[in-house]
Automatic annotation (TrEMBL):
EC class name: transferase
Note accompanying the cofactor annotation: Binds 2 magnesium ions per subunit.
InterPro entries recorded: UPP_synth-like (IPR001441), UPP_synth-like_sf (IPR036424)
One of the GO biological process terms: polyprenol biosynthetic process
Binding site residues for Mg(2+): 14, 202
Name of the protein: Isoprenyl transferase
A GO molecular-function descriptor: magnesium ion binding
Gene Ontology CC: plasma membrane
Complex formation: Homodimer.
CDD domains: Cis_IPPS
Amino acid sequence: MPDNLPRHIGVMLDGNRRWAKAVGQSTAHGHRAGAANIEPLLGWCDEVGVEVVTLWLLSTDNLHRPAEELEPLLEIIAEAVDSLADTRRWRLHPVGAVDLLPDRLAERLKAAEEATRDVDGLWVNVAVGYGGRQEIADAVRSLLADGARRGASLEELAREVDIDAISEHLYTKGQPDPDLVIRTSGEQRLGGFLLWQSATSEFYFCEAYWPDFRRVDFLRALRSYALRQRRFGA
């Protein structure tokens, strides 16, 4: 195992629909196969001592999918999060525009977070209804609202808007930025995932669709990361 390991890994769980099509199954079957692969991934992260994992399960753009696809997907996500919470192995933290989600899903995400609040284990950010631009907009809005509650003037608020202040209002505030971002399915683009936090992250693109992502693929990503000389954006 490499000595140089990431503290925080972001994972773009991509390829469920294409995997389902390739094996002649329904889209819902693909999403269920993808959901079943989440717990093994978190187990592999536990094994090597990763501290934080961010799982991108649903983007804000995905919320505009046809109802016949979206509704089963939302239920699959809710069931997956319930299952992770039931293990009592990981501390779950929903990240995303929760107010854009159906009430029932938002409630289950919040319940999972509350149920695992005291778990001393891997911190798992569950990104549902997540978009990087939306997060930055929400962070700036929250920063300005805090200033307004204090009675700060417009000039004072303008002086307060800096990198550190915005970082303190992100969904992942208080956490280390991701050292490594993994995207499955062969796509080589960020797609809006952790736009602010990944400014100096290393990226690993895996050809396997998410349901086929194996421990050996995970270890290859870690090995690739360990061999790189990080320049932190330079």
